[in-house]
Amino acid sequence: MNKTNLNEIEINGVIYTPKDQNKIADKIDGMPYVIVRTYSAGVFAGYLEKREGQEGILKQARRIWYWDGAASLSQLAMEGTSKPQNCKFPCAVDRIELTNIIEVIYCTEKAQKNIAEVKIWKE
Fold this sequence. Notes:
single chain; mainly beta; five-stranded antiparallel beta sheet; globular
């Protein structure tokens, strides 16, 4: 049994998680919750309102300035962070237009909730 995560069980070397743990986050007004990586503006998490090519609009978007407790953005989008106290996610903005989008990762409900619960980082 995996002792680091009580929502997992290991049987014969295979790790199982509850079905809902990997459910894609619910949409709001048809907008999925995603993590977006851009070429030069950084990484953002929010609701994808629109995307055309390498340009897009996020609503209720938080900049993912620094994260800890996830090996990659992919893990952050699937599981969230195991070290929210070390993360630097500033407050959300109502709407942001992004250019040079190079990656869009759809988040699970678990990750969405976890990202929302990270304390707002301020200087």
